[in-house]
Structures are given as structure tokens and as C-alpha cells.
Amino acid sequence: MRVVVAGSSGLIGTGLVAHLRQAGHEVLRLVRRAPAAPDERGWDPPAGRIDAGTFDGVDAVVNLNGVGIGDRPWSGARKQQIRDSRNVPTEVLATAVAEHGVPALLSASGINFYGDTGDREVDESSPAGSGFLAEVCQDWEAATKPAVAGGARVVLLRSGPVLSPSGGVLSRLRPLFTVMLGGRIGSGRQYFPWISLDDEIDAIRFLLEGDRFAGPVNLVGPEQATNAEFTRALAAAVGRPAPFVMPAFALRAVLGQMAEEMILTGPRARPGVLLDGGFRFRHNGIDEALSAAVGS
Q1: Does the pLDDT of residue 52 top 70, yes or no?
Q2: Are strands 121-122 and 268-269 parallel, antiparallel or unpaired?
Q3: Distance of alpha carbon 185 from alpha carbon 283, whole angstroms
Q4: For residue 288, which phi and psi values (nearest 5 degrees)?
Q5: Structure confidence at residue 172 (pLDDT)
Q6: 207 within 8 A of 271, measured Cβ to Cβ
Q7: Does the predicted model carry a pTM greater than 0.90?
């Protein structure tokens, strides 16, 4: 296949490009500067501009755009940046997919689409939840509508936090646990919808190559884990105790709404489409996923 990837310089995009090429696919990378390599094509999402010829002979577009949601406080300006960095590029790509007759668009979304579900398990048939992140995900997915209207196969990648040896959520947590400053957060009963980087990349390729898939797909591990279970597994993986408990009120005082939606609550999500579709996970449980990510 000939695949255009937007957001190719991020954690997932970098691994995905290498993986697709190893599998024999041709990959073109969209860059927001003057192209400097034969596989690069320039684009300017706010201006709605993409280099001419970018979509010639292209079989699919993978959209991984969006600034991080947990790397700085949620000021009003930051919230708008979170929205714009997702909605604007997605609508530009979806419109281009429709105009150029590209058969497929795989577009990033988030598992926070479901909001806080407590102990209630949700899958792709479940309705949207409430809160800022749930609204972001709904608008993000709605931005793909031009591609749907144009007849493209559109897959919505509702991804959970990715566990990687470098970058992602572990880049912030692993140093704390290594020096024995890690621990359970709040009650620890809130769910943490994780996925390993290997499975994230494998799943995107699986959905890319499987033309029977369309609509939302939960990219999370098959065995769900609570914060307490995640804490125990990460402590075991780094070989250190995790004696502390971070009170919920302290996180709320420091991070406000971000703490409430990203840390103290979470969806108990099942990867129904992947499991029912025959996808085979490399890492089924949180213990093996964290052991692989930290090299233990």
C-alpha cells in the first residue's frame, strides 16, 4: 500500500512509519516545513494547504495529529490548543481524502471518549461520556465527516495511554518509581486503559490492511487494570516498592480538572472490535506490558 502519515514524528508515528516500511508498504510523511527528503510532503493545516500530488496513488491516510493533553496545565488557551491541534488538521485531511478519492482514513481519537465509567465496562457500541476530554474526542471524530461523506472507509482510533520504553506516560512515572516516590493515586479503584506501544502499532497496521474495519475501534489492552493494579505492576517491573499514596484532594488542588479527568477517573474500556476481529495482542496483561516497556 501507499500510505500518507500525518504526525509521523511523534511516539506512535515514528514507530508506525518504521513498522509499515518493514512490512513492505510505501510511506509518505506530511511535514509542516519545506520537505527535505524524498518521502516528505509539505502541508499547512491552518491554511488548508497540502502539496500538490501528495495523494496521487495513495491507498490510505493515517492521521495522528494533536498536542499532548497531559504535559501542561489546562488553561483556557491550552484547552483551545488541544482542540484546534486535532480538529483543524483532521478536517483538512478528511476533506482531501474525499476530494482525491483516497479509499481509507485512519484517524486518531482517544479512549476518553467514554468519560468516567467507574466499574461499568464499555466497548465501541457505548455512548459518549461527559467532560472536557470526552467533548474533545467527539469533536475530533466529527471532523472526519467529509471523508465519510466522500465514501472513504474511516476508522476512529480511540487509543488509551501508550506504554513505551521511551516517551509517553512512563517517561514521567518511571523516574518516580525508580527512586521509590511512586504510589497509588487516590482510591486506586479508577481504571487505567493502557496499551503497549507494540500493540498500538500492530493494531493500526491490522486495521489499515483489514478493509472490513470501519468506525470506532478501542486501542487498549485486553485485560483492564485499575490504578492500584498498575501501580503494583510498575513497582514490580522497576524492582522498587511503591509505598506512597497521593491523596486525591492534593492532585485536584494542583491540577484541577486535568487531575479529575486524566488521573482520578477513567473508562473501563474493552477492545471489542480488535478481539472480535481476530487481532492477537503481544501483551495481554499489565504486568507483561510494563516488564517489556522497562526492560525487566
Answers
A1: yes
A2: parallel
A3: 24
A4: -70, -35
A5: 85
A6: no
A7: yes
What torsion do the CA atoms of 177, 181, 187, 189 make, to the nearest 10 degrees? Answer: 0
CB 174 within 8 A of CB 295: no
Q: What is the sign, positive or negative, of the torsion defined by CA atoms of 260, 194, 10, 211?
A: negative
In b/e form, how buried is each residue of 106-134, taking b as 16+ CB within 10 angstroms? bbbbbbbbbbbbeeeebebebeebebbbb
Three-state secondary structure along the chain?
CEEEEECCCCHHHHHHHHHHHHCCCEEEEEECCCCCCCCEEEEEHHHCEECCCCCCCCCEEEECCCCCCCCCCCCHHHHHHHHHHHHHHHHHHHHHHHHHCCCEEEEEEEHHHHCCCCCCEECCCCCCCCCHHHHHHHHHHHCCHHHHHCCCEEEEEEECCEECCCCCHHHHHHHHHHCCCCEEECCCCCEECCEEHHHHHHHHHHHHHCCCCCEEEEECCCCCEEHHHHHHHHHHHHCCCCCEEECHHHHHHHHCHHHHHHCCCCCEECCHHHHHCCCCCCCCCHHHHHHHHHCC
Buried b (16+ CB within 10 A) or exposed e, 39-72: eebebebeeeebeeebbeebebbbbbbbeebeee
- The one-letter amino acid code at 152 reads A
**φ, ψ for residue 128, nearest 5 deg:** -70, 150
> What is the C-alpha separation between 161 and 11, in angstroms, rounded?
11
pLDDT digits (tens, 9 = 90+) for 72-127: 889 999 999 999 999 999 999 999 999 999 999 999 999 999 999 999 999 999 99
CA distance 205 to 20: 7
265-289 pLDDT per residue, tens: 999 999 999 999 999 999 999 999 9
pLDDT band at 167 (very low <50, low <70, confident <90, very high): confident
